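ARCHIVE CARD
Drawer: 12
Card no.: 0347
Subject: one protein chain, sequence and derived structure
Cross-reference: see card 0346
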Amino acid sequence: MQNLPGPLKDVVEQLSALPGIGPKSALRMALTLLKMTRERANAVGQSILDLRENLCLCEECACLAESSPCAICADPGREADQLCLVPEWDALLAMEDMGVYRGRYLVLGGLLSPLEGVQPGHLEIDRLRRHLGSGRVRELILALGATLDAESTASYVKNLVESEFPEVAVTRLAQGIPIGAEVKFMDRETLKQSLVHRQKV
């Protein structure tokens, strides 16, 4: 990659910094961009700028949205007594793709991870407390995955709910998710079975 022209090398370095993209894939992408018409390349660049400018976090669930509250939180047909806790926005998308769940969500903003320095203060724990303290939530569904960090986070949340909101039932996604897996990588049927057969924690 050292012999690449400067501008091409810059683009390759930027693309290869993205998750899951190595230098060779980044070079292929950069060459594809280079072969585009100027108008098409400008449109791609503008869409990236628009992504930063036109998205916000929903004040209710902390998911990415074009407006706040987001379409899910603004939907009066959603069941307010069920709250599904997901680690990141892509897990919410996976849950929504099932077309089964009709409750509300809260995006936690990650998982507890002492090794990486992620503590409760880094997550949306205060927002979770506000939701549970509203008195509307009767069931908190933990859709956090089955990794060690997910288990640690589930245990923390369960203890918090039991001590501060004992009237709220805590359930979790059940059968179908193997140990070490993350919600965002599950296929639709596995995720559906896990939600339908969730168990009390």
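Annotation on reverse: Residues 6-54 form a domain with the Helicase, Ruva Protein; domain 3 fold (CATH 1.10.8.420). The mean pLDDT is 90.
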